Amino acid sequence: MRLPQKDGATDIEQTKKMVDMFMDAGFTYFDTAWTYGESESVIRRALVERYPRESYQLATKNADWKTRFCD
Predict the structure, then answer these.
(1) Residue 57 lies in a domain
(2) Max intra-chain CA distance, the chain
(3) 38 within some domain
(4) pTM, to two decimals
């Protein structure tokens, strides 16, 4: 999923609405990664800071290729 953009940046308010709709529909699994741009900081603001920790599952993938192949 692409995060919504506004004026060249992620639209955090629209992202919050999307997270709310997702949670209201009964879904709880969120997936993010370093390679997804600013998704980790956005999910913190849209989900982590707004919902109790026990209400969702959050996966953050590691950029293993970066540590193995880059200086």
Answers:
(1) yes
(2) 44
(3) yes
(4) 0.82
